[in-house]
Specification:
Length: about 140
């Protein structure tokens, strides 16, 4: 009987530890709701984010970081405007920016850096897009 009780106590302890670890994992997933939204919206292939810049500016400079180090194509208005690599900046016009990772056989994370804010887009051999918008004069 004591052998069974020892097994039972061990099983209960393992389940309690697993429950705590699962709770911590779920808490981590929801601590940054913006990151959660960006990951979710990226998965359904919707625009990942919208960004408003000053009305006086006609173009916007985006900085990129890619993990693991890779080269991703950037398109806008059905034209290739360049490739992005770690630390590289590209100037884009307001509108939809498309990131194309179809030539990369492994998943990559592209961090788009705008005014010291980082937005993450997960690419897994696919194409995803996001919108860059200017503020209207009335919104200023």
């Amino acid at each position: 009987m004591s052998r069974f009780q020892g097994f039972e106590k061990t099983a209960i302890r393992i389940m309690a530890v697993c429950t705590v670890l699962l709770g911590l994992y779920q808490l981590k997933a929801f601590t940054d709701p913006v990151e959660f939204y960006l990951k979710f919206s990226g998965e359904i292939d919707a625009p990942a984010f919208k960004y408003s810049e000053n009305v006086n500016s006609g173009s916007i400079s985006l900085s990129f970081e890619i993990t693991p180090d890779s080269v991703v194509m950037v398109r806008q208005n059905d034209q290739d405007i360049g490739t992005i690599e770690n630390g590289k900046s590209i100037t884009v016009e307001p509108g939809t920016v498309v990131l194309d990772a179809t030539s990369i056989p492994y998943p990559v994370t592209v961090n788009v850096i705008l005014n010291n804010k980082t937005y993450s887009i997960e690419l897994n051999g696919d194409v995803k897009s996001f919108d860059v918008k200017l503020k209207s004069a009335e919104a200023s």
